[in-house]
Amino acid sequence: MREQHVTVQVVPLDHPPHPLTGVPPLHILRVPAPEIGDQAVLETPGVRVDLIDDPEAVMGHRIRLDAACAAAPGPGTPLPE
What is the pTM assigned to this prediction? Predict the structure, then answer.
């Protein structure tokens, strides 16, 4: 399957800290229906999954995710060797 709307950015280990440094893996779930709000999913592997549906909390996670993406090397940047 080919997904044209997916972007993968890799942050090198020696890159400076970003807004998601130290945060468990984060997923933002968006359903294409305006009556269903976004949800944030924080995973602590092997321990638990937190589902967050509070709009203000989800917005805070979206802002941190956007800032981390802006701080990461852009798509097409060669991976470090």
Answer: 0.72
40: buried, middle or exposed (CB in 10 Å: 19+, 13-18, 0-12)?
buried
CA trace torsion 44, 73, 69, 25 (10° rounding): -10
pLDDT in tens, 6-55: 777 778 888 888 888 888 888 888 888 889 889 999 888 888 888 898 99
Secondary structure (3-state) at 26? strand
For the chain, the structural domain boundaries read 1-74
CA distance 8 to 2: 14
Tell which residue, 63, 66, 61, 77, has the closest CA to residue 11: 77
Number of H helices, E strands in the chain: 1, 3
